[in-house]
Write the structure tokens for this entry.
Amino acid sequence: MSKQNKQSVPAQILSWIIYILIVVILSFLCVTFIGQRTKVIGTSMVPALNDGDQLIVDKISYRFKKPKRFDVVVFPYRYEADKNFIKRVIGLPGETVQIIDGKVYINGSLLDDPYGDIAGPMIDAGIAASPVVLSEDEYFVLGDNRNNSKDSRDDTVGPIRKDELTGRAWIRIYPFSDFGLVSHGDDK
């Protein structure tokens, strides 16, 4: 083996180590600040999302803009580690949300809610049977499958603060047959 080959082997090893470190650091930065994979567990978002669907969550958008009504958001459940909820934004900061006879009212007006009766009329108003006044950084969220959803109507979930949001559901990556962008209110 020549002297030049001996020098190139350590240089190649160092080159590979640097390359692997760069990939690991970039992957960490992407998962921490840009996107994250999450799995839908349960049927609270049927028919938009199904049990077992795997999503990529956009973690960067809400650093620059506020969530909009009907955005599908992801946030951690306060009382169980490593459990994320995926729900649709219904009430925005400063609004008053109330559910009367299975219908959502915002500031006393009936909400034109394209997701409201997807799975039938909402039976339980929960804490929203009385008006819920959202603070300047709170959102009221509901699952699309309203009669099978633990959401802001439940006092263990309640309104969600903006800083609690992991991000916006962006792309369904599995099952492959349903691959594509997640439907938000701006799609309707």
